[in-house]
Amino acid sequence: MGFMDFFKDAGKKLLGKGDDNEVVKKEIEAHQDTMPIDNLDVAVEGDTVTIKGNAKNAEDRAKAALIAGNIEGISKVNVEDVSLEDDSAEIHDIYYEIQKGDTLWRVADIYYKDGSRYPEIVAANKEVIKDADLIYPGQMIRIPNFTA
User: Rounded to two decimals, what is the model's pTM?
Assistant: First the structure.
């Protein structure tokens, strides 16, 4: 996983209120209890965020990228320099951009053929979905354990 693309005009409005590097870093660090990134370093250059540090696994690295990418004004997140403690853990997730009119039930129905599995999506995205009823177009989420 190197670069991830995001919808630049959607997400939390955090940039332009001081040191953007520090703002994005604090947003990621706010979730250290669920996805610690040791030696975290964040650089914001235009609409691109570069994250460096050490993650426990690929899932934690992906969560950090989603947190940064779901900030308004960010269109790319680079996590090439996030090393993994356990690089053998392969994740079978895909990423989905919320569309106008989407619900998590509908997204679960599309990917799992069972809308009632939407809590799995919420659990995998608790860093970016605080309320299952409050998602927005352009928001990028993980669809965990997806098999085609």
Answer: 0.81
